[in-house]
């Protein structure tokens, strides 16, 4: 085998191995990142809705909602990063964040009995909001607590997910690197076999 043909073969094999490895790593990272951000967003939204539900009560036969000052400020900011609505069993809004006069998402009675995640766009904004509809029971009556997060919360989620991904699959990268080195070694060894054989035959003459 000619030297330049052998070199070309080695380069092609190394290039193919590198491309395949990089593709596998990219697919793993994308899948893990998407899974982690969906899971983290779901947990965050449920926690947000439960925080609101904890402050629901009944006084004098009427529902009341008294949020702590910190929560009240978060839902009153003009940036609209967080919104909520508490829906009564008749489908009407009992309490809501500033400027929210309708349910974040309307559900049929049968659907409203279960936990639901959803997304929507507000009429005055182009940004996507992600929300949850959580049924809660207060004094034997079922209410829906709907809470949503806007783009303002996205950066926090991305930072948290990035940290979790690094911790969860950071060990994969060294393993893949070792695998790449092993495959490269075997590939080079296999490619050099004809040359080694030719050298041995020439030495035997």
- Low-pLDDT segments: none
Order of helices and strands: HEEHEEEEEHH
Distance between the termini: 18 Å
What integer value in Å does the Rg equal?
Answer: 29 Å
Number of helices: 4
Shape: rod-shaped
Portion in helices = 40-55%
Q: What class do helices, strands and sheet pairing give?
A: alpha+beta
Q: Strand percentage, roughly?
A: 15-25%
Average the pLDDT over all residues and give the rounded result.
76
How many β-strands, per DSSP? Answer: 7
Strand order of the largest sheet: 4-3-7-6-5
- Report the sheet with the most strands, covering strand number, pairing sense and barrel closure: 5 strands, antiparallel
Summarize it.
With 205 residues, the protein is of the alpha+beta class.
Keywords:
five-stranded antiparallel β-sheet; 205 residues
Q: Could you explain the architecture of this structure?
A:
The chain is an alpha+beta fold and 205 residues long. The chain contains four helices and seven strands; from the N terminus they run αββαβββββαα. The chain has helices at residues 3-53, 69-76, 154-169, 172-204, and strands at 56-59, 62-65, 82-87, 93-96, 116-121, 128-138, 141-149. The strands form two sheets. Strands 4-3-7-6-5 form a five-stranded antiparallel sheet. The mean pLDDT is 76.
């Amino acid at each position: 085998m000619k030297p330049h043909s052998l070199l070309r073969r080695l380069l092609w094999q190394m290039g193919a191995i590198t491309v395949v490895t990089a593709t596998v790593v990219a697919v793993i990272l994308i899948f893990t990142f998407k899974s982690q951000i969906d899971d983290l967003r779901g947990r965050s939204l449920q926690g947000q809705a439960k925080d609101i539900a904890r402050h629901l009560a009944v006084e004098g036969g009427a529902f009341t909602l008294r949020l702590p000052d910190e929560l009240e400020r978060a839902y009153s900011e003009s940036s609209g990063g967080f919104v909520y609505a508490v829906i009564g069993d008749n489908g009407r809004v009992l309490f809501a964040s500033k400027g929210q006069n309708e349910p974040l998402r309307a559900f049929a009675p049968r659907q409203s009995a279960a936990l639901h995640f959803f997304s929507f766009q507000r009429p005055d904004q182009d940004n996507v909001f992600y929300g949850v509809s959580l049924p809660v029971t207060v004094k034997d009556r079922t209410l829906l607590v709907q809470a949503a997060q806007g783009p303002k919360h996205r950066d926090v989620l991305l930072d948290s997910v990035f940290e979790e991904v690094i911790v969860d699959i950071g060990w994969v990268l060294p393993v893949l690197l070792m695998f790449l080195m092993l495959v490269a070694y075997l590939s080079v060894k296999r490619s050099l076999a004809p040359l080694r054989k030719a050298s041995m035959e020439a030495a035997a003459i």
